[in-house]
Amino acid sequence: MKTSDLLASAVANTFRSKLRTTLTVLALFIGAFTLTLTTAVGAGVTDYVTKQVASLGANDVFIISGGAQANPTDGPAEYDPETSTASDGTSAGPLAAGGALTEADLETLSATEGLTKVSPVRSVAFDYIQNGDGTKYEFTANPASSITKADLVAGEQLSSGSTENQVVLPSDYLEPLGYATGEDAVGQQVSLGLTDILGQKHTVDATVVGVAQTSLLASGAGINQALTNSAADLQMAGIQTLNPRYAIATARFDASLPAQDVSALKQKVVDEGFSVQTIQDQLGVITTVIAGIVGVLNAFAIIALLAASFGIVNTLLMSVQERTREIGLMKAMGMRSSRVFALFSLEATFIGFLGSALGALVAVLLGTALSAGLAAGPLAALPGLNILLFDPASIAGIIILIMAIAFVSGTLPARRAAKQNPIESLRYE
Amino acid sequence: MGSNLIIDAKNISKSYGSGANRFDALKDVSFQVAQGESVAIVGKSGSGKSTLMHLIALLDKPDSGALEVEGRDALRMKQRELSNFRNKKFGFVFQQFFLTPNTSVLDNVVLPLKISGIRRSERKRRGLQILANFELESKSAKKATTLSGGQKQRVVIARALINEPAVIFADEPTGNLDSATGGVVEDTLFALNKKNGITLVIVTHDEELAARCDRRVYLKDGEIVPSLSNKKVKA
């Protein structure tokens, strides 16, 4: 029997006992449906977090802090007077990893081969933002924003090389400041007010270059290096502390380097007594948590599929029993056992395909509607979050997985069919 | 023995079960079929006639003895060759028809062609042609289960013939039919034997049907009854 005929026969045979096929398909449908949705939730949340965390830094940036803590999850490092540095513990958030950095540390880092543009992250406290003579609003700048990639809704990213004072506004500032859309705000001048350490009020003007999606992790507006520097200088009121300390510094490296070279470079910085992280390292912790949650959800779907696979075994065993004579006849007429095996395995695989394709399709349709509904309603506070993200590759993967499970389940009944003796089968009443 | 022997079985035996349950279905039977003849294997149920047919039709293997088909040693053929041989050279007609229900008459008839891997269009052409020969063309799209008994058995014969076999094995071909339709089916089979030279091996307990064959072999308790059988093979 030719393979195309075998395939056509398998498809036709599955539709011969419709009720039985429907019930088996239904069991697989539930598994495929669940798996598609849980995977989509995982992908949606991961995508959201990736975008959010990407707003913490670009991919060619090391975030360096004092203290040789290679990994923040490894527990406290032992105190060593040679390398350990004092930490004030005030720097919070994902960017805080170790002790403070001194000017000497920055020089060491600048001298390190492979690192360029080493600069301390200076925190600036603004009092307000104002558009012309409009109402003043409280304003917070993200200290790390000079190295970030904002999740933009309009305009462009901050320019680290520019001498112009630039600001990227969170989208929820648009309306209060009197801009109808993000495009209206781009290119406009705003005034930022701040108080120096002596209590003197100052204002700095800045150009809005972009509007960012409101972010969960990187709170506050983005300001470029030029604005940070001029604001920080104003804030210090011209007073130079003898031994300034910075929570973190950033350094750029060649993003085109292969992974092992990046690791070597990281190790070199660690050996010099610093703690270093790339954006991927920071993402790692969060994605691990998400992967864990999605893994648990997927486990439930797999259990459903496991139950469904027994359904396939049962369905096909019944089918083999029912078609004993037909199998005997085909074998008497010269159909080889391997082809009989292939026929029944294909039937199982086709049942798997039906169940998984239908399950995935319905999950996509329902999930898309659900996702839109959630984004407009309960999840409106998290703009940019697409709770269900359907990835064609993972859907194809799920369908193939279920077809593989169905095939494996089908091998037992198919073996039984293939082993049947044509005479015994023809005698079977 | 001439080269025109299509089946040559020498001293074949077959038993089922073991120990106290051992049942010798066939004991040391020698049996030949020449090209183009019609042979009846006659016997009561349990006489071993079906077992003999299964063995010479290569559906089963004897425990001992020698078996040649078309001059080839059937006992040394691989499974693949056996399947191929049955598909190309043999046609089967069974008492219970064994038509696949819920499948069209045409699909039932072309099943052997499908198994041998012939193209769909070619299958349809040959299937319709053979159904036309049996005046069943109008039924080709009907489900096999909707036919009458006589029609069913003619569909089965059409199916047995579609691969242009050398031998047709018929196991009680008229057993499920009334005498009128049974007669039509008999006429069809013997016409194929006479006109097309297809060798006919009929297993039956019906003396009248057996009498129409060139030769009769009687089996009793797994052995040939020499006094009743025409053992001599027609040259």
Secondary structure elements and pairings:
The complex is a heterodimer of chains A (429) and B (235).
Chain A: H1 3-14, H2 18-54, E1 61-66, H3 103-111, E2 116-120, E3 128-130, E4 136-138, E5 141-142, E6 152-155, E7 166-170, H4 182-185, E8 189-195, E9 201-212, E10 221-223, H5 225-235, E11 249-252, H6 259-271, E12 274-277, H7 279-322, H8 324-332, H9 337-376, H10 392-419, H11 422-427
Helix pairs in contact in A: 1-9, 2-7, 2-9, 2-10, 7-9, 7-10, 9-10
Chain B: E1 5-16, E2 23-34, E3 38-42, H1 49-56, E4 64-69, E5 72-73, H2 79-89, E6 90-94, H3 105-109, H4 111-115, H5 120-133, H6 149-161, E7 167-171, H7 179-196, E8 199-204, H8 207-211, E9 215-220, E10 223-224
Parallel strand pairs in B: 3-8, 3-9, 6-7, 7-8
Antiparallel strand pairs in B: 1-2, 1-4, 4-5, 9-10
Helix pairs in contact in B: 6-7
Give a verbal description of the structure.
The complex is a heterodimer of chains A (429) and B (235). With 429 residues, chain A is an alpha+beta fold. Chain A has 3 domains: 194 residues, no CATH class; 94 residues, no CATH class; 114 residues, Cathepsin D, subunit A, domain 1. Helices cover 50% and strands 14% of the residues of chain A. Chain B is of the alpha/beta class. Chain B is built from 8 helices and 10 strands. In chain B, helix 7 links the parallel strand 7 and strand 8. Chain B is globular. The chains are: A alpha+beta (429), B alpha/beta (235).
